[in-house]
Design goal:
441 residues, mainly beta, globular, Porin, 3 helices
């Protein structure tokens, strides 16, 4: 009898193991491969206090795989790479190469940027591991070759009708290639610029595919923390209205509240108006590793859409407090730049004691598969800013963005972008052009 029972157990184990193996094999065999090929050329010419031209060309992108769910579980991986194309003779430096497409010392690099376990049950999704994240104050900021990437846990739930709840705990970040643009400056003012433009004082610690503690990214060596816990809620239960509220608890650094509301209403067929508002409040917590934090930012945006033409005007203001970090400017070390008034490159709207206005127009030329945009932003910067502390000036930026997405070649996008800042810092101007080709599959 024992032999029969033992044989039955053995048979059941082998059968279940075989079935599980078959299921696992099917989960991987039917998994999804996706990726993007990206070619990026950038050319910047400085005038004023710096006279210089630098340009760079890179080819790269990403390739990923996600298994088919098995019992709600799936695995995902994504490989990222950026590869320098030598277009200058001699030693690479910021005198001739723009650093924002590469790793340290203008080098090519590759990395496993995403590696996660995902579990979905009913209206809840749980993802843990390395992943790409986009929230208002912690985000990929995918503006050059490789984005910011993060390590942690993200839970999304949609049990409440018309409501999405996101809860996360993030501990590490790998800074995208854009972060290297700040490395060329190498000064205290550059650190303050980075801290308020998405990259933190310790931004260089997380370059070249290295995942580093979020506290170190924000404030530099010796500031390891327990990471950032976030809770966000997005509500769309009222026609044409979207509300969102986020709370970021950056352990021993700061607590940040982000609020945004967007309302759109139709005037007639093909004509609509929209209004939006956003608010950021930051305060120090715990050991206050950044010192006192006391920041407030508010913005309004009014938009209109008439057929293929759309546009908006926006205004923002940031308070000041000379006893606080960044003199009361908004601290954004983890890639989150949600401001209505930001330029393509100028992000001074988060400086303390600053008022910013922006106007933008977009025209969709559907018959030619082209979407064209133009904008102008003006930053009225007070003496309490920490980038050029004690100096009051007005920075301006204009630019355009032309996107061509041919229907004849699915998933291909060609893009020409340009920006023309004046007095980015007093006396520092430049013109910059970007040519970007992407193909997704």
């Amino acid at each position: 009898m024992k032999e029969i029972g033992s044989s039955l157990v053995t048979f059941m184990f082998l059968t279940s193991s075989t079935l599980l193996a078959d299921d696992l094999s099917d989960a991987f065999d039917s998994g999804k491969v996706s990726g993007e090929i990206r070619t990026f050329y950038i050319d910047r010419t400085y005038t004023g206090i710096i006279e210089n031209n630098r340009n760079s060309l890179a080819v790269g992108g990403n390739l990923g795989f996600e298994s088919n769910p098995l019992g709600g579980f799936s695995l995902g991986f994504r490989f990222y790479t950026t590869n320098s194309i030598n277009i200058h003779d001699g030693v690479k430096s910021s005198d001739n190469y723009d650093p924002s497409l590469f790793g340290d010392d203008f080098s090519s690099y590759s990395m496993v940027g995403e590696a996660y376990l995902n579990y979905k049950i009913s209206n809840t999704n749980i993802k843990i591991g390395r992943q790409k994240i986009n929230t208002p104050l912690l985000a990929a900021d995918d503006a050059r070759m490789l984005p910011n990437l993060f390590e942690g846990l993200v839970v999304t739930n949609k049990d409440i009708p018309d409501t999405t709840i996101i809860a996360s705990h993030i501990t590490k970040e790998s800074v995208g290639s854009f972060g290297n643009v700040y490395g060329a400056l190498g000064s205290a003012s550059a650190e303050q610029l980075a801290l308020q433009s998405g990259y933190g004082i310790g931004y260089k610690r997380g370059t070249n595919g290295t995942f580093v503690d979020l506290g170190v990214i924000a404030l530099g060596d010796g500031t390891d923390t327990s990471g950032v816990s976030t809770v966000g809620m997005i509500y769309k239960g009222i026609d044409n209205l979207k509300l969102q509220a986020w709370n970021y608890y950056a352990y021993d650094i700061l607590n940040a509240i982000y609020l945004q509301g967007d309302y759109k209403f139709n005037i007639s067929d093909g004509v609509s108006l929209s209004t939006s508002a956003q608010y950021i409040n930051q305060s120090d917590i715990g050991d206050a590793l950044a010192g006192e934090v006391d920041s407030q930012y508010m913005a309004l945006k009014l938009g209109a859409n008439i057929g293929n033409l759309s546009g908006y005007v926006a205004y923002s203001t940031t308070d000041s407090n000379n006893n606080a970090q960044a003199n009361g400017g908004i601290i954004t070390p983890w890639g989150g730049i949600p401001a209505f008034t930001q330029g393509m490159v100028t992000r001074h709207m988060f400086f303390a004691d600053t008022e910013t206005t922006k106007v933008a127009l977009t025209y969709n030329i559907k018959e030619f598969d082209i979407k064209a945009s133009a904008y102008y932003a003006s930053f009225d910067i007070g003496v309490n800013n920490t980038y050029k502390n004690g100096t009051e000036w007005t920075a301006e930026e204009s630019g355009f963005d032309i996107q061509y997405t041919p229907k004849s070649i699915k998933n291909l996008k060609l893009r020409l972008r340009a920006n023309y800042p004046t007095d980015f810092a007093p006396g520092l101007d430049w013109s910059e052009y970007r040519v970007i080709a992407t193909y997704k599959f």
